[in-house]
Amino acid sequence: MIICKDLSKLFGGRPGIREVNLSFSPGIIYGIIGYNGAGKTTLLRCIEGVYQPSAGSVYHNDISTRQTKAFLPCRRRIAFLPADDFLYGKLTCVENIELATILRTGQNKLLTETEKLLDYFETRDFLDKRFCDCSTGMKKKIQIIASLVGDIDTIIWDEPNDGLDIISNIKIKSLLNHYKQKNVTILFSCHVLEFLNGFIDYCVLIKGGTIAESLEADKIASLEDLYLGYSDKQGVAFDASSAEL
User: Fold this and answer.
1) Which of 36, 78, 217, 245 could disulfide-link 154, Cβ–Cβ 3.0 to 4.6 Å?
2) Rounded to 5, what percent of the chain is helix, strand, coil?
């Protein structure tokens, strides 16, 4: 169980998120949506422990992210995937995954689960290639695999399907459902509403750093209408007559 209690994060006095109160339970897939700059990444980074709260707290099974030493074992069980590349560009893909394995588990050989993921995402032919020389989609696949090294009880992914093709997106859904069946808590942000439809169990919509909506997905008639309902609808339709091209 993850609990955010009166959680706020300021950047130079300006709020990234404000007074967030949420809880996330195991075995449920949570989709985090909102326009650019709404606070999705800030929320996920606070939950993972990358950012320390300016006010309030985040608890993982009653352990606060502020308790650095006590929280470390919890953090090792979080599969965290930031939106930006986090692996070392000059290392090969397999070297990055081997390093992640050492840091997360202390073992110097790839785990069986990791080997399965390498085959699942068809990455074998790219393992000896430098990470910086890989395509956007291949980088994302390698980072997903690296994030899942070890015993995982929480998945926190920021835009996991960015740069992935249709088949890889389908595989992402199947993979997350696999972890859902293992009672893992799953949170991820996404701008592609079609990807979320019929897949997520719970939807959290962030606007201006606050939680605008938090509800079960089966109670939402249309994610697009929900999203637009909290956005400035002016300018959604393109007026060709007034455009200067």
Assistant:
1) 78
2) 35, 25, 40
